């Protein structure tokens, strides 16, 4: 995006200086506002033109049957798709008789700016209508972090030079027409669902609509109220029908005068509560917002973000693009998780309809670990959502003939929604991914209440799954056969190393936690024999190794397969899954996204330094990065094995994924995991941070271009600030009791009084590794 | 079925002595008549009641989109389903005002008999109407082997005791209502297609209808003409509308008189020919049939079958059930292939809508090898059908990124119709299966014209597929990874031994044939280098072996997997695929149907006798036979390794599959491969016949129950008769030049003058092997 002439790179905001319709849908994702409960795409106030109109409420979805050419036992019957709910963003303007539409007339200037410190989206327009009237329009929009049900817009319009009659229509619109879905499987399904109206109401400045979803029966309330400033002659009308509530303001405005409209918007939904209850709920939220007022909401928003940045900011010198990108990334990750409150963090947050609004494994492996160290309360909430789905996950495990819980590969409400099991049900690692996020959160926070109530049952039920999924053979190896690891170009493989290491951790931590909460574990049916069975399986976990190549195979048979014919694969044949059949991909050595590399990132102690270097060198020429999830992990391991320039390039790819639209589908929503990956590529990559087994360690190493890097993290109730320069790193404890960390393997004790500055040892410069032709980092 | 009290076991017919509505659909399959071009299910003449009404024309199908929950590159877009065409079997009878319907009134007697020597289905009924009139009805039906487009029915009705008014309606009915499809994936898809009428015509005794299929645009003609005998007062009316042509006979009939109606029925279809051309075609066929006459058609039918049985009959003493079953089997296999004439032999022949009327690999591996030795011209025709599909198969290979031809797993018209690629596209062995059938046919017949025109291109294009699918690794092993073998409970495995042996044969024979037809091969683009590449790949073909267990693994990783938990699998959980997900099945050692066992049957020289015994002992407790394809191969290998009583039990299971409805889906059509398997279990099993590399060898060994077995086979233009008793076997050449065969490894020369009687060596009695609990043979 930075390459686009419309954009400037600013430290604390994303600024679009000119409107380009060809990237409108992409900017709607980038300028999306959310608090994790409400999500509003950055659609223009006047509704049109749009790429994809989008107003979302976390977990409001509709369901539809999954069709199969050949069905089989255990296939999920219904899919879930995020719904575009009642759109409260719309404020239409008519200048004399002319609708304000930037596609007509003359657009003198148009700028939009997402302010990462204030948490608001500003827009400024100067426009002359086809009839020749010139107006200045500005709007400021926020979705409140502090008042979960509330969004607000301040909309101002003034005439230039001549008096004009303005008509403003502020609306709630249900059942908007949506563009038809694309062929790309990553975009959303076509939903023909219509919300059914239960109530519509408009009087004076107030409008309320209650609808419900026909199949899932979710009741959705939307309400708006307004504060209007303008000439004394201004009149206000209100009307409503089943799909629209509209407040109309009409006024003759003189040059120097303006109309200023504050629109408060409240949303609520429930699967249980009645129509009157939902009505009252949104009206009540509106009342509180009106009392706080527009300025009050902005103040609260700023204060919330000041607090966040004070503990999570990353500062950078030398690469202002990455500086912007990492703050943009943290801001959106925060938006996705801040007020989810026991609801999921979807792959696209609430920024677009991509992947049908589903949540996958990457929330636990990419997003939650970042939030654990920057905004941990969101992690506890997101994992409590998983905990709330245990019933469905246990039912699914039973259906699959397994014990414990089998979490869905993709879901909104807990049921498996994938119509292709080799890349979903078989990717059992999602269960250990959830366990990993639990373990990482517990190690980083020491949150005992969470551990007891939420962590223990999640660990126990997932450990049970692994114990029943694998088996110990005659050689005393615990094998996990026929599963799919993170690399989706290899499926149904035996002993995927990532999966086996994760399952090992899962079972060990389940055992250890069950022993600590003996009584509570007993209530879950855990006895000593079961704990021993987990420990034995973990102890005997089979981790294949290719003695001939001296590398760790991604899975047992991987290195025996033919290497993909990269030389005869054209640049236009990526991503491969859109141009080659699975039957071809699965048989070859080709890596869609980091798999063994990710294992080396999460299990830093399971591989020697030499092994890591050899493995990285082996997989690098096989990895095509047909997924936004890959670059961050490659950045992390590249940095670790001394491939610093390569690490920097991967860092840039990870950082600029959405701002540059590197995956060509930012229009469907931002990639939350890739955004989190930007932070990881910086902090775990060139920052060299690892946290395994509760130990914080650092091996920082800056690439040439970055002269200074500072980041803050939460750990064990403390806030740390780490400052890295080319030749030394300084570790500071900002609050809390003294703490021991490791710098290049050496233990150092830091306290609020004593920071430590340590030299960064010299590192041998390795020859740069190469990627498949045409697949070098995009940064 | 033999167990059902309604049935008697006769040597040369299948007799149902009493009508049981609960097995009506099953009997419709068993009593189906076909010549490979037309197929008529054994529906009652009066149309109702019925299980599944069925009138089929080979390759008349409709197409519909295949839906996917998650689509991906290379998935087939449309499926093909066999159509129930215009039903010409219907002859309704009204006795006074009462329709003849066996569900009402009193059924005094009802018998049906399929005569395997005459090729006709006879029915005799004595019925009293609810109003008290008693009638005798009989019908005889045939589908002509000699006049491909013709079926005929002789229908007779006479009053008992009192004069009666009869109304007979002889009809052609298009767009019959069909029962809704079942959940079982093996039954047919729901087709809501309606045939569109282009012409309907009825005058005097003649009726003609022309329809076409809406999507595939196939034009179907059906015509009927009648010869009527009856009282002088008899009147005839004719009428037609878009879905029906009807001839109505009305007569007052005295006791001692009768009405006799000969109905000639003609079918024709084309994707190209015009309505008038199709009309004329069926009228012409009718004319020829009328000239031949009813008695003439019966005579031709009998003569055709006499000729068939004289070269293909199997005689048996000691087990009259198997005697009946093997003739029933041969009769239906003949019916499926006799007049296919470059059209496929579907899995269910033309006996029902099961598997959507598709043709799979089992035609080439189970059906064609039997026809090769009993009715070889049908084999050449069926393989010419494959040859005609080369264009689509080459296109499919290109789509899959492969060279040569990739034949569809299931199809009617040549396009892949499977919506589940791991069990279809990945089952590449179908390509070598076709090559195997070609090789086996060529070795058995020496048909050089076929070899040059049809065999060579089929061998070349399939060899090309294998060469591009596999690869030679650093150790000089040619590997074929990620494919699915015959055992559909293991998919996407590396180096499936069956597949690799078949691919090896395929490439070797392609090379050898291409060298013999040098010029013709050049025209196909084959050069010496390509031939060498096939030979090298075949030479280096990797055949894994488990040194620890001393068994041949079904595929490279198979024996490393966990053994299925048979002890905790209930009898009601079979077939497993209806009760367990693929993700569970694929990870375990459990065999749906013979895989490595089938490899040992087809490649008798690739395994030592000891290895075969060890392998059989290993796989026997893992094989659940959730497929009708399994028992025959297990019978063959059980006999070879000395498990004679077990071989006999498998022979009985194979023989009685459809007559007993052992798979519980005979209602959807007969299992052609299992019927052929009955012959194979006898002839290759207890008869010990093998033909590999053009050599005929025998190791006969009768089970105790069978005191005598004689069978005839065609080979190299000769007809052989082999007679086996408990302690000796006699080999006779019925015609042709002297020929060398092998009896227990010893070469013997037989001629039309000299038969040879050889002693059967004593064999050590092995302890009986056991199957998974509850899965011992059903015979």
Automatic annotation (TrEMBL), chains A, B:
<dbReference type="GO" id="GO:0016757">
    <property type="term" value="F:glycosyltransferase activity"/>
</dbReference>
<dbReference type="GO" id="GO:0004553">
    <property type="term" value="F:hydrolase activity, hydrolyzing O-glycosyl compounds"/>
</dbReference>
<dbReference type="InterPro" id="IPR005194">
    <property type="entry name" value="Glyco_hydro_65_C"/>
</dbReference>
<feature type="domain" description="Glycoside hydrolase family 65 N-terminal">
    <location>
        <begin position="16"/>
        <end position="270"/>
    </location>
</feature>
<dbReference type="InterPro" id="IPR012341">
    <property type="entry name" value="6hp_glycosidase-like_sf"/>
</dbReference>
<comment type="similarity">
    <text>Belongs to the glycosyl hydrolase 65 family.</text>
</comment>
<feature type="domain" description="Glycoside hydrolase family 65 central catalytic">
    <location>
        <begin position="327"/>
        <end position="680"/>
    </location>
</feature>
<dbReference type="InterPro" id="IPR008928">
    <property type="entry name" value="6-hairpin_glycosidase_sf"/>
</dbReference>
<dbReference type="InterPro" id="IPR037018">
    <property type="entry name" value="GH65_N"/>
</dbReference>
<dbReference type="InterPro" id="IPR011013">
    <property type="entry name" value="Gal_mutarotase_sf_dom"/>
</dbReference>
<feature type="binding site">
    <location>
        <begin position="361"/>
        <end position="362"/>
    </location>
    <ligand>
        <name>substrate</name>
    </ligand>
</feature>
<feature type="domain" description="Glycoside hydrolase family 65 C-terminal">
    <location>
        <begin position="689"/>
        <end position="748"/>
    </location>
</feature>
<dbReference type="GO" id="GO:0030246">
    <property type="term" value="F:carbohydrate binding"/>
</dbReference>
<dbReference type="GO" id="GO:0005975">
    <property type="term" value="P:carbohydrate metabolic process"/>
</dbReference>
<dbReference type="Pfam" id="PF03633">
    <property type="entry name" value="Glyco_hydro_65C"/>
</dbReference>
<dbReference type="Pfam" id="PF03636">
    <property type="entry name" value="Glyco_hydro_65N"/>
</dbReference>
<keyword id="KW-0378">Hydrolase</keyword>
<dbReference type="InterPro" id="IPR005196">
    <property type="entry name" value="Glyco_hydro_65_N"/>
</dbReference>
<feature type="active site" description="Proton donor">
    <location>
        <position position="488"/>
    </location>
</feature>
<protein>
    <submittedName>
        <fullName>Glycosyl hydrolase</fullName>
    </submittedName>
</protein>
<dbReference type="InterPro" id="IPR005195">
    <property type="entry name" value="Glyco_hydro_65_M"/>
</dbReference>
<dbReference type="Pfam" id="PF03632">
    <property type="entry name" value="Glyco_hydro_65m"/>
</dbReference>
<dbReference type="InterPro" id="IPR017045">
    <property type="entry name" value="Malt_Pase/Glycosyl_Hdrlase"/>
</dbReference>
<feature type="binding site">
    <location>
        <begin position="592"/>
        <end position="593"/>
    </location>
    <ligand>
        <name>substrate</name>
    </ligand>
</feature>
